[in-house]
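Sample A.
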Amino acid sequence: MAAQPARPERSGPDTTSVMDVSPFKPSLVKAVFRDVTPMHVSRSAAWAAASVTRTVLTEIIDGARRAAAANARKKLIPRDLLSAIDRNVELEVGDKWYAHSPTFQGLTGVLYEAEGVIVPSRKRSMSRKPSAVVGAHRFEAGVKKLLRSQGATAVPAMVRDLDGIASVFLTDLARDAAMVVREGGGKRFGTVTLVMSGEPAPPPFLKDSLRALSTGRGARRTIGRDDILAATTIQLFGGNLRQRALSEAREATQNTSAG
C-alpha cells in the first residue's frame, strides 16, 4: 500500500509568519486611510500598517493575559486592559478611544472648563461622518482572530475596547503617514534605523522635529512603506514596542511589491 503524503503541521502563533497571521487585511487598512486622506496607499504600505497594528494589539493582549493570570483567570476582562497599560506605558495608544469607552472613565477623570465648570461626558455621536470611533466595529473580526492566535478569549466589552484602540491607532497612523508625505517624505524625514538587541536606542523621533526638517510640501501623492515606518516612530515613542513594530513591519513587506 502506497504511503500517504504527510500532512503539513498546523502552525501555531510562535511559528506562523507575520504575513500569515495578520488579522487586519490590506483592504481594511486602505478603507481606514481613505477616511483620512485621498492619497494612494501602496500595497507595501498597507501591509506595513497592518503589521504595526497587529504588533501593538498583540502586546496589549499579552499584557492583559499576564494580568488575568495573576488573578487566576483565563478570560480577559476590561480590568486586565487597564492593568496592562498601568504596567507598561508603551501600551497607552489610541487614547482618543478612552473618552468613548466606559473602561477608561476612571483614568480620564473629571474635566473642567476654564471657569471651573464640569464638562459633561461625551455622548455617542449620531453623525454619519466617518471616524475612528464610528468605524471601530470593522476591526471586530480581526481582533477575535488575533485573540485566537494568541490562545486568548475575552468578554465582549474587552473585544469592544480592543476594536476601538485598533481603529483609533490605525487612523492616527494614517494621518501621520499622510503628514510625512506632505512634508517631504523620507528624503526630508530621514530613514528609520532599526537597532539590534543590546544596542542603544536612537533618539526619539518626535513630530515637532519632523516638521522642523521640512521647508516645503512634497509633490508625492502615494503613501509608501517608509512613510508608515516614519509614522510608527511618531505614534510609538522609543522603546521595545516601537523597535519590534518596525522590525516586524519590515519583515512583513520584504516580499511585497510597492504597487
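Sample B, a different protein:
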Amino acid sequence: MDLRITTLAERPELEGAMWSMKDLWPEFMLYDPVGWANMGRIARELPQYVLVATDAEGEVVARGFSVPFRLDADGRRELPDRGWDEVLMWAFSDLRHGREADTVSAIEITVDTSVLGRGISHRMLAALRENAAGLGFKELVAPVRPNGKHREAGASIHEYAFRTRASDGLPHDPWLRVHVRAGGTIEAVAPASMTVSGSLGQWRAWTGLPFDADGPVEVPGALVPVHCEVSRGYAVYVEPNVWVRHRL
C-alpha cells in the first residue's frame, strides 16, 4: 500500500482528519484522565513528534504519537511502573520546566479500521523510530499494550509479557512480536500503566454490561478484569503495559 508518512508539524492541516479516523479502541479507554488531559496537547505543543500517514488518495489512514522526556533525572532513571500515564506526565512536566529530553516514548499507533491487516502498524513503528533518531535521540521506549492479552484477561501480565513461541523464540503476543522484530527489547512490566475509574452507570454505558455484582468483571477489550464495588457505586480498571526499549 502506498503511504506518505510525515509529521503533523509538516502537515498541520491534517489534524482534524487524524482525530476523525475510525479505530477499535474500547470506549472506556477514552476516559483515562491523564490521556484525556494530554493527548490533544501532544498535537498542539509537540507536532514534530506526531506522525500522520495518508494513502494514495490523500486520506489519513494512520497516526503515531510520541513524546520526548528526560529519563536521566532524580526520581526516574528507570522506566516507570505507571507506564503510559507517568511518561505523559513526565513529558509535559519537562516541557513546562525546560528540561532537556534524552529519550522519546511512543504513546500510540492507531490504524484506520478500513485498512487493518496491511502491515501499516509495522511501518508506523519504523517511522516513529526514524523520527526519533532524526530528532537526535538514541532511544525510543514504548509502553506497549499487548494486543492479544484481552483474550486472556485472567492471565498474569508478568508471565504473558515474556511468553515466547517455541518455533522461533519470538514473543507470543503479536504486537510485542512486531516491536521485537523491529529491534526492540522487552524490558519490564508497567503494572499500573493506565487507570480508568467511573461510576457503575458510566461503566454500564461504556460497556453495555450490568456491573451488578462485587468483584472482577471481564470487559471486552480490557487486558485485565475491571474491579467492581457495587456497594460503593464505582468500578476501576488498572491496565498493565509492557515496556519495550528500542536502541536507535
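Observation for Sample B: The beta strands are 4-7, 50-54, 60-69, 103-111, 139-144, 184-199, 215-217, 226-229, 234-247.
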